[in-house]
């Protein structure tokens, strides 16, 4: 096999390394942009979902700067980055942050469910103190699993994922580790997935009901307007179709990205508990990269593609450009003033 063949280990290493670098860059820039929008726009700060987005952004940013670069170092050097104590701290952070981010997504889905299904009672059911209570639970939930794993020395460098994460090198405590791993993924990934499905499917059901009511009113109006131009009628019908598809597309994006990014890694961690089942080392890194890629997707899925964040980004850019143009014109006037000859 030639060295240029895709099957060459060096080619795999380069591709995976580039993939990790791209995820780090996109995740860092997009999450920083969400944080800037949150700090710039007071309306975003006033909204309850803004707290959940802030917590998710915080977890993604910390994961990006603490865990992803060390995974890249472990991938390139094929060795543990740092000592055992340092790796345990990094593994604790990885377990805590990944759990916290999953639960934050579940909290956002609950918030949307209350807003859509109970719109008149939303402000009484989901206040800032209620959001703070939910976030307190996500932190306590995440901290408990991370602390237990660290205290039992079930956190360390795992060669299959080139990362400091959940790992148990001791055969004496294998049974306990298997039970802990199953419970951990059941009460983080599976719990969050169930909450996402239940809440967003309820939201989709309500959205389709409202779309159907709007469609009925629209069709009745079109029937009454006999002299309406055919092109206007066609645009109304096309808008009906887009309205129905928009809700389905958003719900599919929320649930689909969660499953696409986290499911391969979680399934691999469960399969890994059975020693008789071999796992390709390249697949271990790929599944880890998919889990990391959620940190790069979240800013777009939950924030940056929304109208309010788009408008905030536009305002920030316009403000920067306006300030830049003012500075440029000011320097131009200053240069013109300096060039005026003095009368002797």
UniProtKB/TrEMBL annotation:
GO cellular component, one term: plasma membrane
A GO term for molecular function: G protein-coupled receptor activity
Localization per Swiss-Prot or TrEMBL: Cell membrane
Keywords associated with the record: Cell membrane, Disulfide bond, G-protein coupled receptor, Membrane, Receptor, Transducer, Transmembrane, Transmembrane helix
Membrane topology value: Multi-pass membrane protein
Residue ranges of the TM segments: 12-40, 52-76, 132-157, 177-203, 251-271
Domain G-protein coupled receptors family 1 profile: 30-302
Source superkingdom: Eukaryota
InterPro entries: GPC_Orphan_Receptors, GPCR_Rhodpsn, GPCR_Rhodpsn_7TM, GPR26/78-like
Biological processes per GO annotation: adenylate cyclase-activating G protein-coupled receptor signaling pathway
Annotated Pfam families: 7tm_1 (PF00001)
Function statement: Orphan receptor. Displays a significant level of constitutive activity. Its effect is mediated by G(s)-alpha protein that stimulate adenylate cyclase, resulting in an elevation of intracellular cAMP.
Protein name in the entry: G-protein coupled receptor 26
Organism: Seriola lalandi dorsalis
């Amino acid at each position: 096999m030639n060295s240029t063949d895709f099957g060459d280990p060096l080619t795999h290493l380069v591709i995976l390394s580039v993939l990790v670098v791209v995820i780090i860059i996109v995740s860092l820039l997009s999450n920083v942009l969400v944080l800037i929008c949150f700090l710039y726009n007071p309306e975003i700060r006033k909204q309850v979902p803004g707290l959940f987005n802030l917590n998710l952004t915080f977890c993604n940013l910390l994961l990006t700067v603490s865990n992803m670069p060390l995974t890249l170092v472990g991938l390139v050097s094929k060795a543990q980055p740092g000592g055992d104590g340092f790796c345990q701290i990094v593994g604790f952070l990885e377990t805590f942050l990944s759990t916290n981010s999953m639960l934050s997504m579940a909290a956002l889905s609950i918030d949307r469910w209350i807003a859509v299904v109970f719109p008149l009672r939303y402000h009484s059911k989901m206040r800032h103190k209620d959001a703070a209570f939910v976030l307190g639970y996500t932190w306590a939930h995440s901290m408990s699993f991370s602390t237990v794993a660290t205290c039992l020395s079930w956190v360390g460098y795992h060669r299959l994922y080139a990362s400091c994460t959940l790992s148990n090198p001791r055969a004496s405590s294998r049974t306990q580790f298997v039970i802990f791993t199953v419970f951990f993924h059941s009460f983080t990934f599976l719990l969050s997935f169930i909450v996402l499905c239940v809440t967003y499917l309820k939201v989709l059901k309500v959205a389709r009901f409202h779309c159907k009511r709007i469609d009925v009113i629209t069709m009745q109006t079109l029937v009454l307007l006999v002299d309406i131009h055919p092109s206007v009628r066609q645009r109304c019908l096309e808008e009906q179709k887009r309205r129905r598809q928009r809700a389905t597309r958003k719900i599919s994006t929320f649930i689909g990205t969660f499953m696409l990014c986290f499911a391969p890694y979680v399934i691999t961690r469960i399969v890994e508990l059975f020693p008789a089942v071999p796992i390709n080392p390249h697949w271990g890194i790929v599944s880890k990269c998919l889990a990391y890629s959620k940190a790069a997707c979240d800013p777009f899925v939950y924030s940056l593609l929304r109208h309010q964040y788009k408008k905030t980004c536009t305002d920030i850019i316009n403000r920067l450009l306006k300030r830049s143009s003012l500075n440029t014109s000011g320097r131009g006037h200053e240069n013109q003033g300096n060039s005026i000859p003095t009368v002797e």
